[in-house]
Amino acid sequence: MKVMAAVKRVVDYNVKVRVKSDNSGVDIGNVKMSMNPFDEIAVEAATRLKEAGQAGEVLAVSCGTAQNQETLRTALAIGADRAVLVETDAELQPLAVAKLLRAVIQNEQPQLVILGKQAIDDDACQTGQMLAALLKWPQATYASAIEIRDGQALVTREVDGGSEVLALKLPAVVTTDLRLNEPRYVTLPNIMKAKKKPLDVVAASTLGVDPRPRLQTLRVEEPAARGAGIVVPDVGALVEKLKQEAKVI
After folding, report:
1. Mean pLDDT over all residues of the chain?
2. How many Cα neighbours within 13 Å face the side chain of 96?
3. CB of 174 within 8 A of CB of 112?
4. CB–CB of 172/141 below 8 Å?
5. Lowest mean pLDDT among 3-7, 71-75, 102-106, 217-221
6. 18 pLDDT band (50/70/90 cuts)?
7. DSSP states of 112-130 as a string?
8. What b/e readout covers 27-45, taking b as 16+ CB neighbours within 10 angstroms?
């Protein structure tokens, strides 16, 4: 069984992002970039399936600029066998990414596609669902456990009341949640081995997909600063302020 893990290059989660002076977007110049944490979980899940003997090959795929090769090398260091970069300079939105991934899937024919439930830059939480719809494949979102049994993917997913287990007929799409696993630490020897693993670059224009954005960002602003808090002497004073000043009760 071939497992494909989709990964995205985003601003590192430890970096405090800043809005550009012209409010056109987020300033990512000279900012540390890394793999989207949810996608890192997806690569780890695919690697564990291979280590358990339930998958024969793990393919990592990313869409974007040439700098995404660095992100794919990280996926290879975690345990992916090879990688494919769909290269484009266009601003990629979830639908375009889903269409590009579908084109790669049609060429590679994986039996299971795993990707993060959302990216921490746009928080769209749409790509996995759109991909499954385009492929007409069964899907399971917010996965906290994945098991392959009898030609099916048994996926435990988190819901409001607790959890539920879905049995998906392969091929299928799964999006990962934080509780699925804790990605392994990438060691220097594995980083060196990753440099020798195959990484193919495919131009988006050759896949018959128009990646141009359908949505236009008009303005980006930082959230308003929070006012200073106050200390009240007792519960009665707190209730009075909530009633008279905040008017929330």
Report:
1. 92
2. 19
3. yes
4. no
5. 217-221
6. confident
7. EEEEES--TTT----HHHH
8. eeeeeeebbbbbbbbbbbb
pLDDT attached to residue 30: 84
SS3 state at 227: coil
Distance CA 75, CA 201 (A): 15
CB pairs under 8 A, 24+ apart, for 138-142? 138/168, 138/169, 138/172, 138/173, 139/168, 139/172, 139/173, 139/174, 139/175, 140/166, 140/168, 140/172, 140/173, 140/174, 140/175, 141/117, 141/174, 141/175, 142/117, 142/175, 142/176, 142/177
Q: Please tell me the predicted confidence (pLDDT) of residue 31.
A: 87
Question: Would you say residue 49 has pLDDT above 90?
Answer: yes
Confidence of residue 233 (pLDDT cuts 50, 70, 90): very high
